[in-house]
Prior knowledge:
By secondary structure, the protein is α/β, with parallel strands linked by helices. It has 9 helices and 16 strands. It is globular and about 70 Å long. Flavin mononucleotide (FMN) binds next to loops.
Amino acid sequence: MALSLNEAPVSAPNLSVDCAPRRPGALVLKNPVMTASGTFGYGTEYASLLDVNELGAIVTKAISRQPRDGNPPPRTVETPSGMLNAIGWQNIGLNACLREYAPTWGRWNVPVIVNVAGFSIEEYAEVAEALASAPGVAAIELNISCPNVEGLPFALRPELAAEVTAAVRAVCDVPLICKLSPNVTDVVEIAAAVVAAGADAVSLINTLVGMVIDTRTRRPVLGNRTGGLSGPAVRPVAVRMVYEVHRALPDVPIIGAGGVMTTDDALQFIFAGARAVQVGTANFVNPRASVEIVAGLRDYLEREGVRDMSELVGAAHR
Ligand SMILES: Cc1cc2nc3c(=O)[nH]c(=O)nc-3n(C[C@H](O)[C@H](O)[C@H](O)COP(=O)(O)O)c2cc1C
């Protein structure tokens, strides 16, 4: 239908969100949909299936100082409404990442957030420092919550989480996101600790520790015995944790993850208090899930007459 001359044209809703307002302009995304670490490779693997530039951001697989082969197979198993994985930080290592992927990321019109792994505070700081100065790296996501490698994840103790965050903050000027674990009693305590130590934002949740036993062999299915549970099965836990952190720390940017498969799922996280969401396990079912959710959020704003995405953040608390 044609507009009458007296009607103002309806402008498109604003989907953009600021995930690091303490660093003005440093991590403003054109929409709130990211891919989750470990489910979207280094971004290049999906470039023939979708236009990566339509995404709010891409989060890479964890990068450690040295290349790693990861855990022995089997490394994944399906579970009701989800999956367990125990990949164990398989990656090409810092130098190959800088050489092979950073130049491509620099040419994309989408922020690339690199997920950083380490076995010591020094390793986290060294890898983050090198990546932060690489062209094409928009931010660092500190993976202090992986349940699939030896040693206690730093995100299980507030003082350890704060120590590693402060060490990385001291050597890295780009936005710093700390990825938190659901395998804790009080996630708010950990979120508060990393923000006080210099994190610009938190992402939650990483996977929940689980196990599947093969009743024929009477042994755990995964080579690592335990693995991380992801997918729709974990969504209510993740939404609850985002809700708790937003209620206690309303100014802290939260990136929600855990079973986001559809637009409706993404909206639950946003209403709970997340400024952005990560799409993980869904990529294995539908590689285009993330861009479909971007379109779905745009439709939702238009349908509901909401001008700005950020008006919806935390709606469940009001
Ligand atoms: C196969 C696989 C590999 C993953 N690897 C990483 C990783 O390297 N670093 C990380 O921080 N999280 C990793 N994760 C966790 C996801 O990024 C995400 O936090 C979690 O799976 C919950 O989201 P989802 O239910 O949408 O998958 C991995 C998850 C899966 C399924």
